Structures are given as structure tokens and as C-alpha cells.
Amino acid sequence: MSGAILVIGGGLAGSEAAWQAARAGVPVILHEMRPIRPTAAHQTAGLAELVCSNSFRSDDAEHNAVGLLHEEMRRLGSLIMTAADAHRVPAGGALAVDRDGFSAAVEATLLSHPLVTLVREEVAGLPPPDWDSVIVATGPLTSPALADAVGALTGAESLAFFDAIAPIVVKDSIDFAKAWFQSRYDKGGGTDYINLALDRVQYDSFVDAVLAGERHKPKDWETTPYFEGCLPIEAMAERGRRTLQFGPMKPVGLTNPHTPGMRPNAVVQLRQDNALGTLYNMVGFQTTLKHGEQTRIFRTLPGLENAEFARLGGMHRNTFLNSPRLLDGSLRLKARPGLRFAGQITGCEGYVESAGIGLLAGRFAAAERLGRQATLPPITTALGALLGHITGGARAETFQPMNVTFGLFPDLPGVVDERGRPARGRDRKRFYAVRARADLAAWIAAEAPLAAQ
Question: Going by fewer Cβ within 10 Å, which terminus of the chain is more open, N or C?
């Protein structure tokens, strides 16, 4: 149908997408199936309901990628950030909100816009072809009928229904006085993996810690079955103390150059996770351990004592696309360009990340409808780095949902601190933020018709 943009899903991403398109002057029809069809997680029929935490995490725009994303979205007139700021509650350096007030503000603002129409009904399947501009923002609890239709269009193997997430480590935080590059039996390029060697004492201590670690207890709607090829490391350890040595930590085909002549008792391998080569995932280390436990236990591994984790492990219910394979750079489905996707279904994690991708989807769809060329945000910004990761920067073969992190940003070679040394830690993050602000300002100036005034 010409004219209006159809947005399916009234969560954070869908609400933000609808707002961005409407404020650009394009009519929007927003479909939300609640309360006609409830979900297992939502408690209300309100738009932008916060299902889990009421925290938008760090609001530090100088040293935290999430805080930087907050700032970028504010500068682009984000409805989600405006409502969050208006209904914030004390939370130290984090941005936390009164969830009822926040949801009510988002809904009231959207419904007051003359170009937004809210329809309360389920979209049971893909919209007909005459809807030539559609944004699907249905989140991790997409209705079965719509999920089946998307799966039929994209191929069943390209739509996942649960996360089996291995932790991701920022490469620059690994100690290469202990780690080394090598593939098993020097296959492939011979240096495709980063390796961490453990002796017998270290391995036994690690297994003890994993077995004793506190685990996440999923809600009923989150529960997913374990598959033999995708067991959490703690489930493997429970089968026997040497199970991990014959699984993801097998030491065969590797030689530690730091201890020549001594065969490792066990080895943790990390595999490159993004095209930039800044992130490495811990192979086979999906886990239900709580995040604090993961950080504590994994930093006992040789070479990860000071590790910075771009993502921690998990296993839970989540519907998401293999976006690097299926979506183009402006979030359109390659198999049907009239369909865009936004929010968690694209493979981003977190309230703000979901809303940020919704913001971009709404802007891209509006630009197209207005006959303008949609331009992508610079990859040096938080929005651009997250978009680039899910639409091609991540490896399609190992793609899993991701939060925004400075590990997604292109490197900053040559930056130094006040002592003239290579900038690291907080200093380096500050340089990333400075570059991001400058590049976002230039992009906003070029995108003036759609930018916040």
C-alpha cells in the first residue's frame, strides 16, 4: 500500500521506528497484538513495556558505549530517550526509569501524533505485497504465525528461537605473554585462533569454579532445551571432570610457544568474531552462569586476568534472524526489500540497542518514502557500529545477539594518553567517544531534513 509505513510490534524498537517516521512527515500504522493476543512475558497492553529490568544501563557518554548510544539517540530526537529522561529514577551512574510512567509517556506521545494510527490486532503472517514499506519489530517473543512466515521466506536455518551465547573478549585486553595464535594441527591459516593453555592444577581449579558457580534461573517463558551439540559448560562439567578436556578445551594439535616441550593439559580457544578483528569469542563456552560469576571465573584463565568482555554468555529464549546473511545495510530483507527488521529480532541485545535500531529503521523507511537516499550513520558512531555489526560486520556462521560495545568500533591507531603512551582503558574509550560525536554531527548536518531540529 502506498503512502503509509506499517510497523509491526509496539515495543521499544517499533515505537521508536513509528515516531521517527511520523516526525519526518510520513503516515504510520502501528500494529500491536496485545491485549488481543497476550505474550508469556508482558504484563500490560502498554506500548514500550519494559519486560525485565527498568535500567537502560550506564549513562556515561564519555567512557561507555551504551552511554554514548544514549547521547546519539537524544541528538536524533529519540522518543524512547525523551520518555526515559522524563521518568528517570535514582540509579547512580545508570539511567533507570519508572517503568509504568515511561510506557505511558511513550504511548501518549505516539497517539497524540496526527500521522500515527495504532491498530490492536495480531499480524498473523507476512503482510501482503501491496504493503511496500513494512518494519517488523516484534522482539524475542514474535507470534508463532509471523515467525513461521518469516522462517518460510528466509529459510528455517536463518531464524533462531534461542540464544546459545559464548562470551566475547576484546582482543586488546588479552595477555599475549601467555596466549598465542595457532590453529589445531596448523590447519587453515595456521593462526586462526587465540589459545590459552592450562596445566592440571589450573584446569582442576577451573572445573571446580564452574561447578560451584551461581547460575541464572530462567523464567518459565525463557526455558529452552539443551542440545547435545550446544551444552552449557557447567552441564558438560557435571558429566565428569574430564568432559571439557574432550570437548571445547581439548589440547590436541597445539603447541604452546611459551612453554616449549610441555603439552598443555587443556586449552581454551578464542575465534575471531567480527570483520574488524577486535573481538574474539570463547569457542564452545555457552553458559547459564550469572554474569558476575562468568567475569570472576573466566578471569582466572591464563591470559584473561584483565579481560574486557564485550558480551557474556547465556542461553535463553529469543527469536532472531541471521541478520548478516539476510539483511542489507539499511535493514531491508534481501529476499523482499519492502520488509525491514528492527530491534531484538535483528540480533541486538538490550533496551537501548533495540530502540536504536528501531530509530534507524524508521529513518531509513521514511527517507525512502520521501524519495530521498537513506544514508547510513558512520561506523565510528555507536549507532553505526551496532548497525554495521548486525548487517555484515559479524560472522554469519557464529552470529549471536550482541550489545553495543567499543569493541565494535573501528580501531583508533596512534592515539596516546597525556604521558605519550598508547591510550588504553578509559582514555581510549574517551577518544572513541570524541570521534563518534564529531562524525555523528557531520552525518546529522548532511541528513538535516530527517535530523532533530
Answer: C
> Given this model, what pLDDT does residue 450 score?
47
- DSSP structural state of residue 220: G
Closest among 383, 402, 369, 387 to 443, alpha carbons compared: 383
Q: What is the DSSP string of 376-407?
A: PPPTTSHHHHHHHIIIIIB-GGG---B---GG
Which pLDDT does position 161 carry in this prediction?
55
In sequence order, which ranges of 47-98 are alpha helices (DSSP H)?
65-75, 79-86
For every residue of 234-266, DSSP letters joined together read HHHHHT-TTTGGGTTT--TT---TTSTT---SE
Query: Phi/psi zone of residue 48: left (φ > 0), alpha (ψ -120 to 50 degrees), beta?
Result: left
What is the largest distance, in Å, between two alpha-carbon atoms of the chain? 74
Find out whether 370 and 26 touch, Cβ atoms under 8 Å.
yes
Global pTM reads 0.77
Cell of 345: 529480532
**Contact 83/15 with Cβ under 8 angstroms?**
no
Domains of the chain plus CATH, in order, are: 5-163+317-450 (3.50.50.60), 168-312 (2.40.30)
Give, in degrees to the nearest 5, the angle at Cα 278 between 213 and 376. 115
Element of type H or E holding 444: helix 425-446
Decide: 37 and 374 in contact? Cβ < 8 Å: no
Q: How many residues does the chain have?
A: 453
Closest CA to 247 of 263, 262, 266: 266
Name the stretches of the chain with pLDDT < 50: 1, 221, 449-453
289's enclosing H/E stretch is none
298: nearest Cα among 200, 163, 169: 169
Q: What one-character DSSP code corresponds to residue 52? A: S
Burial 255-284 (b: 16+ CB within 10 A, else e): bbeeeeeeebbbbbbbbbbbebebbbbbeb
The Cβ of residue 64 has, within 10 Å, a number of other Cβ atoms equal to: 22
Residue 90: CB partners within 8 Å, gap ≥ 6? 96
pLDDT at 226: 54
Q: Is 445 left (phi over 0), alpha (psi -120 to 50) or beta?
A: alpha
- Three-state SS for 20? helix
Residue 443 and residue 448: Cα distance in Å, rounded? 9
Q: CB within 8 A of 159, min separation 6: which ones?
A: 147, 150, 151, 319, 320, 321, 322
Q: Can you read off the three cell numbers belonging to residue 351?
A: 533496551
